[in-house]
Amino acid sequence: MAPPDRSGSSLMLADLRALACLFVVWKLLLLCIAYASPGPGYDTSTTLLLARAQPSLTENSLLEDFAKRLVSNLVRWDALYFVSVARRGVIFEQEWAWGWGFTKFLALVSKVLPSASSQPPLFVQAYAGVLISHVAHLLSVFVLYGLVDCLPFTTDKSQRRKIAFTAACLHVFSSAGLFLSAPYSESLFSLLNFFGVFVHAGIPFELPLEEYGLISLIRLLLSGASFGLATTVRSNGIFSGLIYFYHVYMLFHSRINVHTIVTIAVIGPSAAMILSGMLLPQYIAYQDYCVAPSDGNLRPWCSRKLPSIYSWVQEHYWNVGFLRYWTVSNIPLFLLALPMLCILISTGLAAPGLKLDNTRQPSKQHSNHASVYILCLALPQILLALLAFTTFHVQIVNRIATGYPIWYIVLAAAIVSPNTPAQDDKKTIRPDDALPLVATFQHQLNKHSIQKLLVRGMLMYSIIQGGLYANFMPPA
C-alpha cells in the first residue's frame, strides 16, 4: 500500500517540529553542562555582582535555587555588562561598546516578566536575557529554514527541503554554543539579520529596478529596518548593507524611467535605516559626552573628525586596531579562530557557484544575476572574516559568525549533495559562471571527510566551550 501523499506545508511543519525537538535536546545538554560547572574560575565578578543584588537573609525554594545557580553560571564575560546596563543604564564610557539596542530590549523584557516584582533586579535582567537568547535562537532556526526556499540555489523541492533542514540543524549546533543561551546579543542579532535577508530575498533577484512593484518596495524597507535593528544589537550588522550592492549592479541592467527612480528613492531610506542603527547610539553618546558633559570635560574622541565613541572605546580600552592583535601571545587564539575564518571565506566564495534552480533552463544572464546576488549576500561574512583576522579580537569570530546565513547554507548543500563538480552534472559549476578559485573551494567543501570533520568540530567546540564559559574561563 502506497503511503498517503503529504502536502508541502505538512512536510514543512514536520521539519519544524523536528528542529524544535532537536533544539530542546541540544539546549538541555548545554544547560546541564553550565549547571554542573563548579564555579566562577579565576574571576569572581558574577559572584560579587549577584551577591549584592540579593539580600543575604533571603530564603529561596529549591526551584529558585536551581534557577539562580543556572543563571549565575550563564552570566559571564560581556553578559555582566549587558545585565548591569539593562538594569541601571550606561554609566561608564566603556559600556557603550555593548549593543545599545540589545540592552534597551533586555530592559524592556525584564519589566514585563511575570516574576519581576518578586526577584532581585539583576536576576530579573539575567532571566530576561536567557529567555531572549533561547526564543530568538529558535526563531532564527525557523527563519533560516524558510530562507533557503527564497534563494536561487539547488534543484528540486525535495533537495531544497533537505538543504533547508540541514542548514537549520547546523545553526542549532552553531559554534557560538552557550553564548546563544546566555544573556548575550548573538541570538537576537541572528534573528534580525536572518529576517532581513529573508525579507530581501523575497524580491525576485532577476527583476530589473523598473519592474519593482509595491510588495518589492515594502520588502526593501522591511529588510532595511531589520538590518538597522540588528546593527543596534551588534555593530557588525552594518555589513549587511553590502547586500544593496546588488541593486547597484541591477541599475546597469535596468531602464531609467519613473519606476526606476521610485525604486532608487526607496533603496536610499532602506540603506539609511541600516546606517542609523550605527549612528543613533553614537549621536546619543555624543550629546552626553561632547555637547553637555556632566563633569564639564570633553573626552578626547569628541575632537576627532569622526567622533565615534564605539571606535574610541574599542581602541582605548581593548586595544582594537589594524594588526594590533598580531602578537606572539595571541597565536593560539588565531589558531582557534582559523577554522571559522576559512569556512566564512571559502563558503562565501563558493556560494555563487552553487547549482542554480534547474526547474527551467536559465539563460546566461539569469545565471549571472543569480551568482552576483548570492555573492552580495555572502559579502558581509567575507568582510567579517577579513576584519576579524586583521583588526579585532579574532577569537570572537566563532560566536559572531553565527548571525550570517550563507555559510550554513553552503555547508548544508555540500552535505546533502556530496558530489564533486567532476561527478555532478555540468550545471554545478560552469567555467563561464564561476572563477576557477570558486570551483576549487566548491570541490574541497564537497569532500565527505571535510563535511564530517566540520560538523564534529562544531559539536565538540560548542560542548568544550560551554564548560569553559560557565567556569569563567577563556576563550570568550
Write a structural description:
It is built from 18 helices and no strands. The N terminus is likely disordered. It is mainly alpha-helical. It is globular. It is found in: Endoplasmic reticulum membrane. Belongs to the PIGV family. InterPro entries: PIG-V/Gpi18 (IPR007315).
How many strands appear in the DSSP assignment? 0
**Could you state the oligomeric state of the chains shown?**
single chain
Which structural class best describes the helix and strand composition? mainly alpha
- Overall mean pLDDT score? 87
In sequence order, what are the helices and strands, one letter per element? HHHHHHHHHHHHHHHHHH
Q: How far is it from the N-terminal to the C-terminal residue, by CA?
A: 55 Å
The total tally of domains equals 1
Overall geometry comes to: globular
Residue share in helix: 55-70%
Q: Please indicate the percent range of residues in DSSP E strands (runs of 2 or more).
A: under 5%
What's the total helix number? 18
Largest sheet: none
Rg calc: 23 Å
Poorly predicted residue ranges: 1-5, 420-435
Function: Mannosyltransferase involved in glycosylphosphatidylinositol-anchor biosynthesis.
Main location: endoplasmic reticulum
EC number: 2.4.1.-
Family: Belongs to the PIGV family.
